[in-house]
Design a protein that fits this description.
Chain B: This is ATPase component ABC-type dipeptide/oligopeptide/nickel transport system. Chain B: Pfam families: ABC_tran, oligo_HPY. The structure holds two protein chains of two kinds. By secondary structure, chain A is mainly α. Chain A has a domain at about 240-505: MetI-like fold. Chain A has helices at about 10-30, 30-40, 45-65, 90-95, 100, 145-185, 190-195, 205-225, 240-275, 280-295, 295-315, 320-340, 340-355, 360-365, 370-410, 420-430, 440-465, 475-505; strands at about 5, 65-70, 90, 115-125, 130-135. In chain A, strands 1-2-3 form a three-stranded antiparallel β-sheet. In chain A, α3 (about 45-65) packs parallel to α8 (about 205-225). Chain B is of the alpha/beta class. Among the domains of chain B are: about 1-80 and about 205-240, P-loop containing nucleotide triphosphate hydrolases (Rossmann fold), CATH 3.40.50.300; about 250-345, no CATH class; about 360-460 and about 515-680, P-loop containing nucleotide triphosphate hydrolases (Rossmann fold, 3-Layer(aba) Sandwich), CATH 3.40.50. In chain B, α4 (about 110-120) crosses α5 (about 125-140), α7 (about 155-170) packs parallel to α8 (about 185-205) and α16 (about 470-480) runs parallel beside α18 (about 520-530). Classes of the chains: A mainly alpha, B alpha/beta.
Chain lengths: ~500, ~700
């Protein structure tokens, strides 16, 4: 075997999540009415475009999740003839992006530059020493006279890359059109016109447009990345594009795992407090007021430090540095999750207090429906919109929280690449003159795309799953009511993020 | 006489769904100074949108596409927004339906009235305060100097509506638009507010545009009436003429759909179908699909605006001159004939009063439900709200007992207490001779199928995230009526279909979500859900008060038919005397947690003994032309149940109050085997009453 598969803790959890997703998919296929709601998600143009982008991120994240240890060269064998594996844990993404990973420079270089960002003393072939911007080892190394050829070369390469991307896209369009045409038993041309007029039920036009942009951009970036550092390099000469790609997995994990850990607490305690009232309510309220009155950074710092000590004293448990870093990431998620459920819990308690007085809950009581069933069938589905909005809003604030914690020194392991560490590193560079802006820019762009597409997608999901959103035409009174309800909703959601941020910082 | 407000051919679109909704479609009206013009219609007919269009306060989705609105000759629709702000509150005042929502809770009432004055009158300082006082006095708020510094939460509903009226009057408007001004209020309070509005109107010679769905209010207030249906006015007439000889079939049906005692033994006339969707283009009469007098012409040609008598216009082919077939008069006669024959189709020979059953189905003795009031850091119990304070009643199988009272009197709490939805403080609730209070949760579960409840608001009584089939099955499943699981699910499906059919809905309806149904249909679903467990007693908590008149008739008919088919007993909790008169066998009148009078329906409603019952009955607005009733105006509002007056609870408002009333709660007085009351005016034994006057 030329590699040794490694399953880290977070990998296992991601596989579990994936399996749960697939299981739900199978379940939904069997239950028509569940499927009907998800079908409606696919009718939203913005939602599907967002999903396309989100899927790209998830794909990168998944590629980065398949970990293994490559075999060391044949010459190095252990005494008993066994193959030895590298101590370095790699992922599929590392393999695919090997040029990016391995082509490191000496220090900072601007995006698409052929020179370093700082002057240094260079010994010319004729023995003189001059102070100049040195050429990069990899970036633009194929150019003889970068000053003259650079722009033309970049344009040519990006154009041909984008062209190749678009070619793939055309292939995809044709393939999709063919499949769909066969499915509906109409001619290929008619299917294409239907797609491009936006007459299809699933907004293929929007999806394909998004895909076109993604593929063209990817094509150009791939073409350029062979010979340049598209997003520049950082202090130790690592490619920023590579760092950004690696950060996606960390961001996704912190976003999803923390939410998954937080949700049971928030849901169970929040709904129980609102529904049962009495002493249960009192106990839960005291717990979360206490928790949220402790500065959460302090709490997290204490927990992370304890965990660090534990890992150091049990070093033999973890054989690789990657496993150590990974465990620390997982613990960070757990700690963040345990400290951040209070906000959602408070919201859910309030909403449940309102819902429990609703007459359909009273009717359920009149039937003697069990508490558990009332909670799960009547209350939970009616608070899902709050959960969805809060978790998506939390997603971005969690990624930011990770950055803040990394700054204090209790965030992810320094060897883990994350948006937080990137932002943290670029914090000082912003003060340099001339400014090093690309690290922050890269982190910002990637986070922005990730969070925005997650937001848009969750919007589409929420709209599709709220039966009330299919407004009844012809009843102006009800329409007016719906409007005010939505405004009120917008207000509650509007207050959320600011509330969160202030409590954390 | 020139009109004060003249609206011509107003068309309003609401851009909400895929197709714009023609909420108001070619509406014209004229209101003269000093006149009350009532716009009558069911929900969704476009009344409120009309009012908002006149004020130019439409929501963003609304658009006025055509027409003109002239106030004293000034075109309002073309005014710039800044000029329009000088019109609102100054030349046109508006009162909204819900006084609880239209006042700002963090401003004192005086400041809120002052805000209007600051905007429009230029009064400042002391002059402003004096004017506020004057306004508050004018609308009958007692002790205005103190009250103006108080916040809305310190005011009761009726008082809040008075503050709203004071705000509307602040700018001395020429026109007052009142959008369902009393719908959220109790009957006795409604009578006070209507009185006030009438007085103010005469004083100030204001024109009033009264928007309402209540024929009774129209009869009390209006000079002229316009009936709105599906975005159009279909009939206008003087009040007298309208109530004596309504012309349009829809108006006829509205009258026929009202429950009264005379219709007790019949079904009510219902209007089949629903108000049509306003997004479609109409080629004929809008009412044609629901009209039993419609013929081909009605579906093909839009009916013209016909004048049947001076000042009486109607939009109906029955009255158009070119009607070749029959004269309108004969048509009308045949119309009332068919109305009667429709009645015969619903043979409801109700209550042949089989008093063979000796044991009552439900027996409630001295039921008390007190809510503790917590105070302080450690939530010590500082007092009790005596929501229900010693209520006794009994219902026989297959009979209907109505529990009548104003809001806050504890009637809903009685219902919930019987259902064991809230803890009972003391007393006994016996169902089929079994004490419910002794049962634990599990034993109660077995009993639950015997008694069920229907709620007031069909919009909040169905879980919006569950399909109808799940909603109906829930009860069946929870009460475990079918033990065998696989056979059960099939049988359940069949049961659900039958139930839906029973309440008059198609079986396919079960796959849909509640929001896809109208209010009346939702109430039917709620009834089906309650029936699913085969109960003997249904507690109906204001089952029709959230519904329109025509839909109310459908639900009442349904309740009546179900009672006969299943020998159901009803505990009807309501404030609507007409419904009581139509449906109930016995009545109990509640005031502040206690029953003050009870007896058979005829006894109590025809010959009320307790001063409160008398006042309550006299305050109900009626439209019947001949009725010369003497209205007893009650002073003040019911006190809070947390702070019950000593002696007879009613004494602070009672017109016949005697010294003894302030000290001792009266004992029972008996007038017949069933008719009892609690009042010092009568001897506590069954004797002739003392003097009433």
């Amino acid at each position: 075997m030329s590699f040794d598969p490694v399953i880290l803790w977070t990998d296992a959890l991601i596989y579990l999540l994936l399996a749960a997703g697939i299981a739900f998919g199978i379940y939904a296929r069997r239950h028509v009415y569940v499927l009907a709601s998800w079908r409606k998600v696919t009718h939203s143009a913005s939602g599907m475009s967002a999903l396309t982008i989100l899927l790209c991120f998830i794909l990168i994240g998944l590629l980065d999740t398949v970990h293994f240890r490559p075999v060391l060269e044949q010459s190095v064998r252990s005494s008993d003839g066994k193959q030895l594996y590298s101590a370095e844990v790699l992922s599929l993404l590392d393999l695919l992006a090997a040029p990016l990973r391995l082509q490191t420079e000496k220090t900072y270089s601007a995006p698409l530059s052929a020179h370093l960002y700082a002057k240094e003393t260079i010994t010319t072939p004729d023995g003189n020493q001059i102070r100049d911007f040195a050429r990069l080892v990899h970036g633009g190394a194929h150019l003889q006279y970068p000053e003259m050829e650079l722009v033309e070369d970049i344009l040519w390469r990006s154009a041909s890359g984008a062209g190749a991307g678009l070619l793939i896209w055309i292939g995809l369009v044709a393939g999709l059109g063919g499949v769909k045409a066969r499915q509906y038993r109409i001619s290929f041309v008619r299917m294409q016109t239907a797609i491009w007029r936006g007459a299809t039920e699933i907004p293929w036009r929007a999806i394909l447009m998004t895909l076109a942009i993604i593929l063209a951009a990817c094509g150009a970036i791939v073409a350029l990345a062979m010979h340049y550092h598209v997003l520049g390099t950082d202090k130790v000469g690592q490619d920023v594009l590579y760092l950004s790609l690696k950060s996606i997995r960390t961001g996704l994990i912190i976003g999803t795992m923390t939410t998954l850990i937080m949700l049971p607490f928030a849901l169970l305690l929040g709904i129980a407090a609102g529904y049962f009232r009495g002493w249960i309510d009192d106990v839960i309220q005291y717990i979360y007021t206490t928790l949220s009155s402790i500065p959460s950074v302090l709490l997290i710092a204490a927990a992370v430090l304890m965990m660090q000590v534990y890992i150091e004293t049990h070093a033999d448990m973890l054989d690789t540095a990657a496993a150590r870093a990974d465990l620390r990431l997982l613990f960070l998620c757990i700690i963040l999750g345990i400290t951040s459920w209070t906000g959602l819990c408070r919201l859910l308690r309030g909403e449940t207090l309102k819902l429990r007085e609703m007459e359909y809950i009273q009717a359920a009581h009149a039937f003697g429906v069990s508490h558990w069933r009332i909670l799960s069938r009547h209350i939970l589905p009616n608070v899902v919109h709050i959960v969805l909005i809060t978790t998506v809003m939390d997603f971005s604030s969690l990624v930011l929280a990770e950055a803040v914690l990394s700054y204090v020194g209790v965030g992810v392991d320094p060897s883990t690449i994350s948006f937080g560490t990137m932002i943290n590193a670029s914090r000082l560079e912003m003060a340099r003159e001339p400014m090093v802006w690309w690290t922050l820019f890269a982190a910002f762009t990637f986070m922005f795309a990730l969070v925005l597409s997650a937001n848009l997608f969750s919007d589409a999901v929420q709209n599709a799953f709220d039966p009330r959103n299919r407004t009844l035409a012809g009843d102006p009174n009800r329409l007016l009511n719906n409007q005010t309800e939505e405004q009120a909703m917008a207000e509650t959601t509007g207050t959320l993020p600011s509330d969160k941020n202030t409590s954390r910082t | 006489m020139t009109a004060l407000l003249e609206v011509t051919d107003l068309r309003v679109l609401l851009h909400t769904g895929r197709q714009p909704v023609r909420a108001v479609d070619g509406l014209s009206l004229a209101i003269h100074p000093g006149e009350t013009f009532a716009l009558l219609g069911e929900s969704g007919s476009g009344k409120s949108i009309t009012a908002l269009s006149i004020m130019r306060l439409l929501p963003d989705a609304g658009e006025i596409v055509h027409g003109s609105v002239r106030l004293n000759g000034d075109e309002l629709l073309t005014l710039p927004e800044s000029a329009m702000r000088k019109v609102r509150g100054n030349r046109i005042g508006m009162i909204f339906q819900e006084p609880m929502l239209s006042l700002n809770p963090v401003m004192t009432t005086g400041a809120q009235i002052g805000e209007v004055l600051l905007q429009h009158s230029g009064l400042r300082g002391a002059a402003l305060q004096i004017r506020i006082l004057e306004l508050m006095r004018q609308v009958g708020i007692p002790d205005p100097a103190r009250r103006m510094a108080e916040y809305p939460f310190q005011f009761s509903g009726g008082m809040k509506q008075r503050v709203m009226i004071a705000m509307a009057l602040a700018g001395k408007p020429e026109l007052l638009i009142a959008d369902e001004p009393t719908t959220a209020l109790d009957v006795t309070i409604q009578a006070q507010v209507l009185d006030l509005m009438r007085g103010l109107q005469q004083q100030e010679n204001m024109a009033v545009l009264l928007i309402t769905h209540d024929l009774g209010v129209v009869a009390e207030m209006a000079h002229r009436v316009a009936v709105m249906y599906a975005g159009q006015i279909i009939e206008t007439a003087d009040r007298e003429r309208f109530f004596q000889s309504p012309a349009h079939p829809y108006s006829h049906k509205l009258f026929a759909a009202l429950p009264t005692r005379k219709k007790r033994d019949q079904g009510l006339i219902v209007i089949p179908g629903n108000v049509p969707a306003l997004s479609k283009v109409f080629t004929g009469c809008r009412f044609a699909d629901r009209c039993d007098r419609a013929w081909e012409k009605c579906h093909q040609i839009i009916p013209p605006w016909v004048e049947t008598a001076p000042q009486h216009h109607v939009r109906c082919h029955l009255y158009s001159d070119d009607s070749t077939e029959r004269s309108p008069q004969s048509r009308l006669q045949s119309l009332s004939r068919t109305a009667r024959s429709a009645l015969d189709d619903l043979p409801l020979s109700s209550h042949t009063s089989d008093s063979t059953q000796s044991k009552p189905l439900l027996r409630v003795d001295d039921l008390k439900i007190h809510f503790p009031v917590h105070k302080g850091l450690f939530k010590r119990v500082a007092g009790h709200v005596k929501a229900v304070d010693g209520v006794s009643l009994q219902i026989d199988g297959g009979r209907t007992l109505a529990l009548v009272g104003e809001s806050g009197c504890g009637k809903t709490t009685v219902g919930k207490g019987i259902m064991q939805l809230i803890p009972v403080t003391s007393g006994s609730v016996r169902l089929q001779d079994k004490e419910l209070r002794d049962l634990d949760r599990k034993q109660l579960l077995q009993k639950r199928s015997a008694f069920q409840i229907i709620f007031q608001d069909p919009y909040s009584s169905l879980n919006p995230r569950m399909r109808i089939v799940e909603i109906i099955e829930e009860g069946i499943r929870a009460l475990g009526r079918n033990s065998d699981k696989i056979a059960a699910s099939e049988k359940n499906q069949h049961d659900v279909d039958t139930l839906l059919m029973q309440v008059g809905l198609p079986a396919e309806a079960k796959w849909r979500y509640p929001h896809e149904f109208s209010g009346g249909q939702r109430q039917r679903i709620a009834i089906a859900r309650a029936l699913a467990v085969d109960p003997q007693l249904l507690i109906c908590d204001e089952p029709t008060s959230a519904l329109d008149v025509s839909v109310q008739a459908q639900i009442l008919n349904l309740l009546k038919t179900l009672q006969q088919e299943h020998k159901l007993a009803y505990l009807l909790i309501t404030h609507n005397i007409a419904v009581v008169d139509y449906l109930a066998d016995e009545v109990a009148v509640m005031y502040l947690g206690r029953i003050v009078e009870s007896g058979r329906t005829e006894e109590v409603l025809d010959n009320p003994k307790h001063p409160y019952t008398q006042a309550l009955l006299s305050a109900v607005p009626t439209y019947e032309p001949g009725s010369q009733r003497e209205i007893i105006r009650l002073q003040g509002e019911p006190p809070s149940p947390a702070n019950v007056p000593p002696g007879c609870h009613f004494h602070p408002r009672c017109p016949h109050v005697m010294p003894i009333c302030r000290e001792v709660y009266p004992a029972v007085s008996r007038f017949s085997a069933s008719h009892t009351t609690y009042c010092h005016l009568y001897h506590s034994v069954s004797q002739e009453p003392q003097d009433l006057q």
